[in-house]
Structures are given as structure tokens and as C-alpha cells.
């Protein structure tokens, strides 16, 4: 499934050729597809390893970030995160960097894997609080560590506005796009965030949260790792059931302004995902539609006093 222009074709033959050239001791291990996201394709290698390959050459910068920063962040986090064990270099057949990580056992967060959603929300809040509390170690919001979700909402207003127009043309009859846009525009009028910059995972959606024995086990895919304001970090809780969302908010004591900005980020990511992936990635479009539906349901419910 091709999602982007200039996507690099990847198959088992290519992966084995990379391993043969750079890690021959792994080249004959069993190899099987282990999923694909919007930016990377993954293969499980043997029992203990995961090969991570960017879909396009420019996505390689995300793997470089992981290779540099995950070994420094991991000792400071209670929750397991990926451990890079090989920094692959470009070849003629694959013209960008790639990675091999330790395999982490677990299943994606979902109704069949999570035992108690309130406990899950509190556990996720603990991970986020811990990550946001880590010293920046000299890192700043610049270059690869500067991502739009760690900034203010207003710089995104023009292109998100175009995404709303796309959504009206596609899912408009099935979603209250006008209500979503009203919530988005109301958030644009809120004060810009002024809290200190923190470390951000950037994409804490359920597919990046691994569960074992019903509880949060690990957080994966730090390709969106960045430094910035924490508001957008909270946006993915609208991908979780309401019990998890409330427990998360309570655990972090998030005020109304922060919550409304987080919701606006959730709207922005949802409508932009529908706009960009409408013809190429129906499963991701479905995730975005579900997120926006949860936001509308929340907005329709009376707020607690």
C-alpha cells in the first residue's frame, strides 16, 4: 500500500539484502511483516528484533532522532520504550537510514486487550507526566525536534481550514463538520500556551501503546519525538474510551483551557488525516473518523460543574 509520493518499495528480499550487507549475523533469522504505519514499515526479525524502514527518504530523520535520544531517555522512564541496536546506513537499493530495535512483546491497546480503561488512562498519564518531567539535556525546539504539534494552534489555521473543506466533501454527511470547525475556531481564540517546553512523544495513539495482561506495558514509535508545549500530547486520548480519557485528565489535573487546546489538536489531526489519506489509507481514515466522533459526543454532553 503506497501512501506518499516517492515511496521506497520494501519487501523481504530488500530487508535481507540490507542485513546481509550490514549485519550478516542476523541475515538468516526468520523474517515476517510486523505492520506498517504512515511513516515506517516494520518486519519482525527472529524472536527478539524489529526492523524499521522509512517509507520515504525524508522520513529517515525520525529514525536518527530515535537512535540518538531513546538510549538517553529510556533510563529515565519507568515504562519500557524501544531500544535501538543497529543504525542502518543507506544503500543503492534503500537510499536512507533504517533501524533495528529490540522486540517488545505486547498487543495494541483496544477493547480486547485492556482490562480496565480507567486504570489504563491513569497509567498513560503517569508515563506522560514522567516524560514531560525529564530534563531537556540541552535539546531545544529546533531542527528535527521541532514539530508543528508542539507549537501553537494559530500557525496551522490556514491549512487546517482547507482540511475542513475536504472533510465536508467526503464525510460531511456523516460527521458534524460545522460543529468541529466551531470548536477548532473557538480554540484559536484561546491564549497561546506559555508553559515551559518539554519532551513530547508526539503520537500516543492506541497503535503505539502496547498492552500485556490488560495493563499498559510499553510505549513505542518515537518518530514524532520533539520538544515543545504539551497541549497536543493530550490530543490522542480522544482515541480512547471516555473512562480512560477522564482518568487521564484527572491524573494530570488538566485545566479547561489546556483541555480545549488539546481537543483542538485532536480535531486538527483528525481532519487533516481524512484529507490526506482519504484515497490511500482507509484504516487510518476510520481512526480519524472515530476520534472526531468521540469529540462530538463529548461536546454534546454537559460539562461537569
TrEMBL record:
**Alphabetical list of InterPro entries matching this protein:** AGP_Transferase, Aminoglycoside_PTrfase, Kinase-like_dom_sf
Listed GO MF terms:
transferase activity
Transferase in keyword set? yes
The Aminoglycoside phosphotransferase domain, residue ranges: 32-265
**Which keywords does the record carry?**
Transferase
Alphabetical list of Pfam families matching this protein: APH
Q: Under which name does UniProt file this protein?
A: Phosphotransferase
Amino acid at each position: 500500500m503506497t501512501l506518499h509520493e516517492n515511496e521506497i518499495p520494501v519487501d523481504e528480499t530488500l530487508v535481507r539484502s540490507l542485513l546481509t550487507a550490514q549485519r550478516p549475523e542476523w541475515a538468516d533469522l526468520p523474517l515476517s511483516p510486523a505492520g506498517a504505519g504512515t511513516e515506517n514499515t516494520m518486519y519482525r526479525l527472529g524472536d527478539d528484533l524489529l526492523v524499521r524502514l522509512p517509507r520515504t527518504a525524508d522520513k529517515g530523520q525520525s529514525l536518527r532522532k530515535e537512535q540518538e535520544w531513546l538510549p538517553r531517555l529510556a533510563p529515565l522512564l519507568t515504562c519500557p520504550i524501544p531500544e535501538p541496536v543497529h543504525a542502518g546506513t543507506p544503500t543503492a537499493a534503500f537510499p536512507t537510514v533504517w533501524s533495528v530495535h529490540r522486540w517488545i512483546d505486547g498487543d495494541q491497546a483496544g477493547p480486547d486487550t485492556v482490562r480496565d480503561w480507567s486504570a489504563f488512562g491513569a497509567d498513560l498519564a503517569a508515563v506522560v507526566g514522567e516524560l514531560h518531567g525529564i530534563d531537556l539535556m540541552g535539546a531545544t525546539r529546533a531542527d528535527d525536534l521541532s514539530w508543528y504539534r508542539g507549537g501553537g494552534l494559530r500557525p496551522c489555521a490556514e491549512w487546517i481550514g482547507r482540511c475542513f473543506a475536504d472533510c465536508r466533501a467526503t464525510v460531511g454527511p456523516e460527521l458534524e463538520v460545522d460543529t468541529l470547525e466551531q470548536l477548532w475556531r473557538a480554540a484559536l481564540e484561546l491564549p497561546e500556551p506559555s508553559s515551559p517546553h518539554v519532551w513530547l512523544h508526539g503520537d500516543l495513539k492506541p497503535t503505539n501503546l502496547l498492552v500485556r495482561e490488560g495493563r499498559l506495558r510499553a510505549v513505542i514509535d518515537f518518530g514524532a519525538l520533539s520538544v515543545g508545549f504539551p497541549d497536543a500530547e493530550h490530543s490522542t486520548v480522544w482515541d480512547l474510551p471516555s473512562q480512560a480519557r477522564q482518568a487521564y485528565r484527572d491524573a494530570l489535573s488538566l485545566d479547561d483551557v489546556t483541555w480545549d487546546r488539546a481537543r483542538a489538536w485532536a480535531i486538527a489531526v483528525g481532519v487533516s488525516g481524512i484529507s490526506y489519506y482519504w484515497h490511500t489509507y482507509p484504516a487510518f481514515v476510520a481512526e480519524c473518523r472515530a476520534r472526531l466522533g468521540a469529540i462530538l459526543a463529548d461536546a454534546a454532553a454537559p460539562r461537569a460543574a
